[in-house]
């Protein structure tokens, strides 16, 4: 049972900008904290051993600036070289940190949209629609 007293399953997923799921971890009860699911995931092992991206120097170029590939996570996840999370707001964030958190949150909405599409697909399927 999860914290809301009903049965659920924890799902950890990574989606790209095209709303395609690139990695999914399923099977943990909903009561298990996201950080634990993350620590025990294939994604975490690949991130830690440097095999998450095709090459150690994987990057894209925007306006001539090299931007290394990273994954964005929410505040339940630990900050890693390969995983960017928002700053913890303890009331002392600088303007720069607040702006970073705003951009981070806006960019992470891609994952929320991907999950929204998945939920709608599941509802259509459960009602016999395709």
UniProtKB/TrEMBL annotation:
It is found in: Nucleus. One of its GO terms (cellular component) is nucleus. GO terms for molecular function: hydrolase activity; metal ion binding; nuclease activity. Its main location: nucleus. Its cofactor is a divalent metal cation. Residues 2-119 form the DDE Tnp4 domain. Keywords: Hydrolase, Metal-binding, Nuclease, Nucleus. Pfam families: DDE_Tnp_4. Belongs to the HARBI1 family. This is DDE Tnp4 domain-containing protein. It comes from Cymbomonas tetramitiformis. The lineage of its organism: Eukaryota, Viridiplantae, Chlorophyta, Pyramimonadophyceae, Pyramimonadales.
């Amino acid at each position: 049972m999860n914290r809301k007293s009903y049965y659920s399953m924890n799902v950890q997923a990574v989606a790209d900008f095209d709303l395609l799921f690139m990695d999914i971890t399923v099977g943990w009860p909903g009561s298990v904290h996201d950080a634990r699911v993350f620590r025990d995931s294939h994604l975490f092992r690949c991130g830690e051993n440097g095999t998450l991206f095709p090459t150690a120097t994987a990057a894209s170029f925007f306006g001539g600036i090299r931007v290394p590939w990273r994954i964005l996570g929410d505040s339940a996840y630990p900050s890693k070289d390969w995983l960017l999370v928002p700053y913890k707001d303890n009331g002392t964030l600088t303007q720069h940190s607040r702006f970073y958190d705003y951009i981070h949150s806006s960019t992470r909405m891609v994952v929320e949209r991907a999950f929204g599409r998945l939920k709608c697909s599941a509802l259509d399927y459960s009602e016999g629609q395709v």
